[in-house]
């Protein structure tokens, strides 16, 4: 996969027709574009993956695989790139989609949650108060979990509005949601906090996880 990534990303144009004969989990990660603009940007741009029809389909299928048979009533995506995967997953599941927004964009009554994002910036996210009722099972989706601050804030919003949580078979005292899904959940302090408490799904094969953790 690393060799594929190096070779394909040197091309100025993207081959939207090429599909490898053996589509192993995560093959589409090689479609992501590297950062060419410096340290103020994320180290990879997954939006290139979304342009590839089979890549996007397989990414969504891999994210949903751990939740086969689980009751999911609604999918919630985090502003802004979580909207893409979240809406795609909601369409596959034939469920509704809830947008968790950055503060100041919703013209209805909201509940807000402050958080610190992966770059260390203080932000606030909001969600409308009439979408989540007690008993609703929510699958939370974002593009990437780096420090975990953004996803943790989204989890807290859902909890405050009464989303239903199951019980982890090994940590019965902790509440956990129906699930958390992202292309990558890094092995950061925040990423580990989420993995230990919630049922998670991601696309990075275990042999490549250290590279993603170190942004290589």
Features:
alpha/beta, single chain, two-stranded antiparallel sheet, adenine phosphoribosyltransferase activity
Protein model, in words:
The protein is an alpha/beta fold and about 220 residues long. The protein has one domain: Rossmann fold (3-Layer(aba) Sandwich). The chain has helices spanning about 1-10, 45-50, 55-65, 80-95, 150-160, 190-195, 210-215; strands at about 35, 45, 75-80, 95-100, 110-115, 120-130, 140, 145, 165, 175, 180, 185, 200. The chain has a seven-stranded mixed β-sheet, with helices on both faces. A two-stranded antiparallel ribbon has the order 1-2. Strands 8-12 form a two-stranded parallel sheet. The protein starts with a helix and ends with a helix. The model is unreliable at about 165-175 (pLDDT under 50).
Q: Topology of this protein?
A:
Blueprint: H1 2-8, E1 33-34, E2 44-45, H2 47-50, H3 53-64, E3 74-78, H4 82-93, E4 96-102, E5 110-116, E6 122-128, E7 138-141, E8 144-145, H5 149-160, E9 166-167, E10 175-176, E11 179-181, E12 184-185, H6 189-197, E13 200-201, H7 209-213
Parallel strand pairs: 3-4, 3-7, 7-11, 8-12, 11-13
Antiparallel strand pairs: 1-2, 4-6, 5-6, 9-10
Helix pairs in contact: 3-4
The assigned structural class equals alpha/beta
Q: What value does the Rg take, in angstroms?
A: 17 Å
Helix proportion = 25-40%
Whole-number mean pLDDT: 87
Sequence of secondary-structure elements? HEEHHEHEEEEEHEEEEHEH
Percentage beta strand: 15-25%
**N-C termini distance:** 13 Å
CATH class: Alpha Beta
Strand tally: 13
Uncertain residue ranges = 165-176
| Large-scale geometry | globular
Instruction: Note the total helix count.
Output: 7
Organism: Mionectes macconnelli
Domain Phosphoribosyltransferase: 70-162
Enzyme class: transferase
Subcellular location: Cytoplasm
